[in-house]
Amino acid sequence: MNNSEILFLYDAKMTNPNGDPDEENRPRMDYERDINLVSDLRLKRYIRDYLEMQGERIFVTKLEDKSVKPEKIIDKLKKDLGKKKLTKEEILKELIDVRLFGATMPIERDTKTFTGPVQFNWGYSLNKVELIEAAITSHFSTDSKNQQGAMGRDYRVKYSFIAFSGVISGNRAKHTLLTEDDVNKLDKAMVKSIPLLSTRSKVGQYPRLYMRVEYKDNETILGDMRSTIELIEKNESPRDISEIKIDVTKLVKHLEDNKDRIESIYYFADPNLEIYQEGEEKEFKDIFNSFNLVEVR
């Protein structure tokens, strides 16, 4: 398998992209710059949940809606497969999230650590983000003496346009038995998982642009593509996808300069996102038409 690098852009409107338990579940923030942050674990959770919803076996999951020790997951896998023992290869072939992201897991009397070929940096917003705070009241009392209902706080971002960067290592893929089919499933999960797995605090998030640049070898890494994207705000404090646009002029040059290293670009582009190159609005497929493009559906 060859290396790939990922650029993923999505937005969040009146929602909480990633609550911080150390901050009363407020959205994670870099307060010095008013930048919204989202951990890689939050993104991986979306992907795992989507893949599980599609019938894939997942290692980092719950059993009967309860958190359990890793040994319990392996014991259930043995039971489902009708085996008393499982080899490393058998476990890897069954658990797609371990093939993607790696894990530390019990294998018989040993503990084995797999470093995942797919890794993401933390996501951050390309715009400055404002928070909104509101009081919420539950109709259920907290105990027999309190008949008024529980009070709490609800924290959300007004609008956040979030960018993630990721890599897929062809060398590490060999050790977790990652397949091309697995990577294709990852592509779909990146595009579909967030809106399909919305909860009360997460509804209002949509993928806007996904690019997986696949290289011709397992040595090439060109670097984080987020620095080549310019976010242009139509209004001083945007609140909707219609109030922003992105300029990909630097990204196009970055990729064109390394075109001989690129095999294909797998992509999803939301038609609601305005994309500009050298001051002119264009469709994604027209901007990158010199590359072998594969649309993710």
Automatic annotation (TrEMBL):
Gene Ontology biological process terms in this record: maintenance of CRISPR repeat elements
Pfam families in alphabetical order: Cas_Cas7
Superkingdom to which the source organism belongs: Bacteria
UniProt cross-references to InterPro entries, sorted A to Z: Cas7_Csh2/Csh2, CRISPR-assoc_prot_Cas7/Csh2
Database matches in NCBIfam families: cas_Csh2 (TIGR02590), cas_CT1132 (TIGR01595)
Protein name: Type I-B CRISPR-associated protein Cas7/Csh2
Organism: Thermohalobacter berrensis
